[in-house]
Design brief:
The chain has helices at 2-7, 12-36, 41-52, 54-75, 84-97. The chain is mostly helical. Residues 71-99 are annotated as: Disordered.
Length: 99
């Protein structure tokens, strides 16, 4: 599924924005339900929680797409260069940590 989303042109940043939008929409639905319905705060809470539960899914899909984007970038590299980026990053982390 992640590969299909990646091929469709959906980027990890799109999913991160959807997660943030879900949090904002969660607050908006909670507030609208609280102010607009007579059912009380219980229903408003349920609406807010329902929409708020979408955010972790969007963030997880964003992470999966970020991994797919990284792998896709490595596959496009010449044979001898693959994995070299990872080693450079690891060396930078070690150098910064005093190891």
């Amino acid at each position: 599924m992640i590969k299909k989303l990646h091929k469709m042109g959906i980027k990890s940043n799109h999913m991160y924005l959807a997660g943030l939008g879900s949090i904002a929409l969660s607050f908006a639905t909670w507030f609208a339900s609280k102010e607009g319905e007579r059912a009380g705060i219980d229903r408003a809470d349920r609406w807010g929680i329902f929409v708020g539960q979408w955010a972790p899914t969007f963030f997880a899909m964003g992470v999966a797409l970020r991994i797919e984007e990284t792998h896709q970038g490595e596959e496009d590299m010449p044979e001898g260069m693959r994995g070299e980026t990872t080693h450079r990053t690891t060396d930078r982390i070690r150098a910064g940590s005093g190891v």
